[in-house]
Design goal:
Elements (H helix, E strand, L loop, with lengths): L3 H10 L4 E5 L8 H6 L1 E5 L2 H15 L3 E5 L8 H10 L3 E5 L9 H4 L6 E2 L7 E2 L10
Parallel strand pairs: 1-2, 1-3, 3-4
Antiparallel strand pairs: 5-6
Length: about 130
């Protein structure tokens, strides 16, 4: 299983310096991660998605949004807006929920990578046709 340190290394390689931490995802961050990145904690997941959008627009650079899988469905409306505005927000699902159907969210992303099985990622097939309204 890939570690949070590995994910944060990937974010650093993408030039991401700021994390938006949604709800209980704060429990995944250790002191090392808190020192390495500037982060904002937003208790409500829906608000965290829109906060990430606003932060990206303000900074004119990408940010990462950390969320647990049980709350990912709460991000749909903000992800639709992020897609329409073509903002570089990286959403990181910190745990696995094999019961959740991610296909709805795949319409709102340009690229999906799965780091669960190894240090290297596998590219996930996504329908990059945009959201369904």
């Amino acid at each position: 299983m890939v570690t949070l340190d590995r994910i944060l290394d990937v974010l650093e390689s993408l030039g991401i310096k700021e994390l938006i931490v949604a709800d209980t995802a704060i429990d995944f961050l250790g002191e090392k991660q808190k020192e390495s990145f500037k982060y904002s904690f937003i208790a409500d997941v829906r608000s965290a998605g829109f906060f990430a959008l606003g932060k990206t627009q303000t900074l004119q650079q990408g940010v990462a949004l950390l969320v647990e899988s049980k709350y990912i469905s709460h991000l749909y409306t903000s992800m639709v807006e992020i897609w329409f505005q073509q903002m570089p927000v990286v959403v990181i699902v910190l745990d696995t929920n094999d019961d959740f159907d991610y296909s709805l969210l795949h319409r709102c992303v340009r690229q999906a990578k799965d780091y669960r099985d190894s240090e290297d990622y596998k590219e996930l097939t996504i329908a990059d046709n945009g959201p369904t309204l």
